[in-house]
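Researcher: Structure prediction, please.
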Amino acid sequence: MGTLTAKTVDRLAKAGVVGMTGDSGGLYFKVGNSGGTSWIFRYKIAGKSRDMGIGKYPETTLADARAKAADARKLTSSGHDPLTARDAEREQKRLAAEAERAREARRVTFETLATDYLAAHGSHWSAAWRKGWLRKLELYAFSHIGKLPADKIETEHVLKVLQPIWATKTRTADEVRGQLEQILDSAKAHDLREGENPARWRGHLDNLLSKAEKKKARKRQHFAAMKWQDLGELMTKLRKDESRVAVALQLLLLTGARSHMVRFAVWDEFDLQARTWSLPAKRMKTGKPFVIPLADEVIALLESLPPVGESPYLFPGIGRSGVIHDDAMRDRLISHGYTGVTVHGFRSTFRDWAGECTHFPREICEMALAHDERDQTEGAYSRTDFLEKRRGLMSEWAHYADTQPPAKNVIQGEFKRA
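Model: Predicted structure follows.
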């Protein structure tokens, strides 16, 4: 039986005299320096004295403290450290709570994830684009996977969405596939799923769905291009846009590059002193290395772009690829109100401008887009890539895009510097 009583403990607490008063069996009532009161269990384990707090007073009563001390004594008598056991129990409870929260989070359905994605990314889209984006999912995806949590969606589910429309509505099917990939990438970023994205095309669905159908759909697709006369307004908006994607769009516009060339651009490809962007063969559609000359405006753009952490990419992202999503630049255009043009179409914008507003030969203009129109025999004797001539062309193009020359400066088919 202990020596303390409830009244004695209450009196000690009110007196506030700093110190520890023993009960029995290693239980003590403690009054701290700040006046706080609590219960301490003092014991020895492996020859070392240890103190373990077992509750604050008055939340923990004398009877409660004696019961906890008795449990702790049972552990010491069997050779176990009560503090170690308590820490292990707390850790187990913490892990169990985390696991339950994770299970609860994973119960979020794909349909909810899709609407959450739209809310997070669609605020800058036009009303028509938001409606169309969600409508495609309503028509083709939700009936198959809408009620599934993200971590339960596998390749077989994605195929159930895409296969019924792949041959008849290939372009729409590919757009839906891109939406699924975006949403599932976002789910992974929020720790709602693990592993590979079952909706990715390259190295996965391209082995399961007809590539020929996709190629035919792309051939039927005419990339909507902006008129070169209208480029100034867009450039003004992009220069005011502080997002990294806006910089990616400017780099694409000013160099005539393809989307994937910009998305996967790495810092090591750029030589700002030599004013070149050197792309290896594996990064080019032609399978041949290509060097893009960089105008002053592009150099300034790159110098203003700080690296992100340890990423080698100029435009890193959160998905499996490690770079910004395939639709990121298109979405940024839409956020600025440009729903009727495509990212790829800017190559046509450049080509139309070069043909109408400069005197550069056709082969130089085509080579600027990595289109080598020389036949095999001619190419064998002419090894040059016309880098310096292309440098002059790209310098004029960047100057035009950056200075927004008024219409009066376009005279008789020739571009006159402002």
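Model: Residues 110-220 form a domain with the DNA polymerase; domain 1 fold (CATH 1.10.150.130).
Researcher: Thanks, that helps.
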